[in-house]
Structures are given as C-alpha cells and as structure tokens.
Amino acid sequence: MLESVVAGASDPEIEGVEVVRRPALVVSPVEWLEADGYVLGTPANLGYISGALKHAFDVSYYQLLDATKGRPFGLYLHGNEGTEGAERAVDSITTGLGWARAAATVVVSGAPSKTDLEACWELGATVAAQLMD
Questions:
Q1: pLDDT tens track for 59-106
Q2: Which Pfam families match (predicted)?
C-alpha cells in the first residue's frame, strides 16, 4: 500500500513536488514542519492507530498546531476489522491541527486487492497534485 501511495505521489505528471518518506517512529517535528502536505498510513491495531503514529503526533502536536494549519493530508488504513476507531483518532488529531483532508480515506480490510492499491495510488497522486507549484 505504501509503495502504491508513493508511486501515485511521484507520478511524472506531478511537477515540483518532492516526496519524502519517513517512518512514524523517526519523523521529527522539523520534518513535519518542512513538509507542505502529508499522507498518513497506519495499521488499525485493536481498533486504533499504531503506537508509532500516535507517538509521532504526541511528540510534535503542539509544535505543529499553528504552523501547519490548512495543509492538505490523506490517510490510508489497513486492518482486518474495526478500523473505525483508527479513522476517528486521525480525524480528531488532524481536525485539532486544522489540516485539510485532500481525499477520502482509503480503508483496506484483509489482503489489499488491485482496486485497493489503485485507490492508494490515487490518494498519493491527489495529495501531491494539490501541492504542485
């Protein structure tokens, strides 16, 4: 799913956008601040976002609060069941930050199908296209 998102965001027709990948456990507040938009991906573990993504927001939230308002974001979730809590958590965090949803959330249950991967590609392309110069 991640590779499909990155492929969409890196489409040659999208110009002037640099795609930077960062694992949630190592992304720094400075890297969040330097980005113009975001695509977040997380497994829905026990009906909630991964501990890694929660940690990324926990250590950066207040630094991002006013500085990133209005930035576009997208979200993709993968779980076997019960992804609603994870989606609700990200919605709450991004609403608090004032981010703008660039596209509908992609939710995948079980093994990703070709259609799921295409939706991930579209998600990456949509967020990146909104950042074109």
A1: 999 999 999 999 999 999 999 888 999 999 999 999 999 999 999 999
A2: FMN_red (PF03358)
From residue 96, alpha-carbon distances to 12, 63, 72, 87, 124 in Å are 33, 12, 14, 14, 23
Q: What is the pTM of this model?
A: 0.94
Q: Are 59 and 93 in contact (CB under 8 A)?
A: no
DSSP letters for 114-127? HHHHHHHHHHHHHH
At CA 81, angle to CA 76 and CA 21, rounded to 5? Answer: 25
Q: Which residues contact 128 (CB under 8 A, 6 or more apart)?
A: 8, 9, 10, 11, 14, 17, 19, 37
Helix (H, G, I), strand (E, B) or coil at 108: strand
